[in-house]
Write a structure and sequence with these properties.
single chain, alpha+beta, Endonuclease III, domain 1, Nucleoside Triphosphate Pyrophosphohydrolase, 2 domains, 7-stranded mixed β-sheet, 13 helices, 15% strand, binds iron/sulfur cluster
């Protein structure tokens, strides 16, 4: 699609709108726990958690994570399984592993202090331009820009920039770098843009009537606020059907660890098999144990990226044979201490009625 950008020279109302946006943010911003600190470590953790996860969910995780790993050194020296357990339920587990790896790099390269230099921050494992901009601007008030989905949306609408998704992202970075205050207030500015996108300039039905930049907004003036930014083309969802075995012995539950590589590597789940039209009957022997299928306990649905997963919970029983890795018996009361996949949390909560596992 040809670019129909209208962002020529910065319009004069832009300056008033910027002031309005900052004033609005000072008054209306949500009181979130990570906004009460300038500790770069705490801000970094919040930014890592907030990617792909709702604020309401992150608050509890962030509070518990900070209590468990209060600083860079605590995270660097933690066992990976403990970090994954604290992360369990947030998804995208590579982020948790990267956090720990980056903490170790900060200890090794920067004596445990979060670096203030953008190059040094970007060189840490798993830290990209967004997180670099967020931590440096919010914690140290450095004039670093950032762009996330909220910022792309706000800027695309404010300046009526019409381009395919990838080009809009690149354009938003350029624009954000131009707009970020160069002397002081970069952190407030970046957060104001994101807050506007999260609470007012939302993906559907933006609340233009209470928007602080409405007078300068070109998308609103042209009736494009529900059109921009252009949506990414999403791949067709893939349907997957799984069977998760609920196997108990005494007070123990049989769990399975996922392989060390690939998606959700190393996390725990109920022993799980894929079912397909060509393979309607299960072969529990593939799990490495003699398992006798019992009744189906229920059905749950789960979504991971573009997979739509239907999970049949099915009871199974095993004899006295010892189980070997990747299977393991775990006391039912200790299930919550494992680094579980999100799907396993749902399945266990459904099987045992333990809402705290969800
Ligand atoms: S006026 Fe509407 S479309 Fe424009 S930035 Fe504000 S909320 Fe978004």
């Amino acid at each position: 699609m040809p670019k129909r950008s209208t962002d020529t020279a910065a319009p004069a109302p832009e300056f008033a709108a910027r002031r309005e946006l900052l004033a609005w943010y000072a008054k209306e911003r949500r009181d979130l726990p990570w906004r009460r600190t300038r500790d770069p470590y705490a801000i970094w953790i919040s930014e890592a958690m907030l990617q792909q996860t709702r604020v309401e969910t992150v608050i509890g995780y962030w509070t518990r994570f900070l209590a468990r790993f209060p600083d860079v050194r605590a995270l660097a020296s933690a066992d990976e399984s403990d970090v994954l357990t604290a992360w369990s339920g947030l998804g995208y587990y590579r982020r948790a592993r990267s956090l720990r790896a980056a903490a170790q790099a900060i200890v090794a390269r920067h004596d445990g202090k979060f670096p203030r230099d953008a190059e040094a921050v970007r060189a840490l494992p798993g830290i990209g331009p967004y997180t670099t901009g967020a931590v440096l601007s919010i914690a140290f008030d450095q004039p670093e820009a950032l762009v996330d989905g909220n910022v792309v949306r706000v800027l695309s609408r404010w300046f009526a920039h019409d381009a395919p998704a990838a080009a809009a992202q690149r354009w938003a970075w350029e624009r954000a770098r131009e707009l970020v205050p160069k002397s002081k207030g970069a952190g407030e500015w970046n957060q104001a843009l994101m807050e506007l996108g999260a609470t007012v300039c939302t993906p559907r039905s933006p609340a233009c009537e209470r928007c602080p930049v409405a007078k300068a907004c070109l998308a609103r003036a042209r009736g494009l606020e529900n059109v921009l930014p252009r949506a990414k083309e999403r791949p067709e969802p893939i349907d997957v059907e799984l069977v998760a075995w609920v196997v108990e012995r005494g007070g123990d539950v049989l769990v399975e660890q996922r392989p060390e590589t690939g998606r959700m590597a190393g996390l725990w789940q109920l022993p799980t098999e894929q079912r397909s039209p060509r393979r309607p009957q299960l072969f529990p022997a593939e799990l490495g144990i003699e398992l006798t299928p019992g009744p189906e306990l229920g059905l749950l649905r789960h979504a991971i990226t573009h997979h739509r997963i239907r999970v049949v919970l099915q009871r199974g029983t095993v004899g006295r044979a010892r189980v070997a890795a990747p299977l393991r018996w775990v006391p039912k009361a200790e299930l919550g201490t494992l680094a579980l996949t999100g799907m396993a949390r749902k399945a266990l909560a459904a099987a045992f009625g333990r809402p705290n596992l969800e």
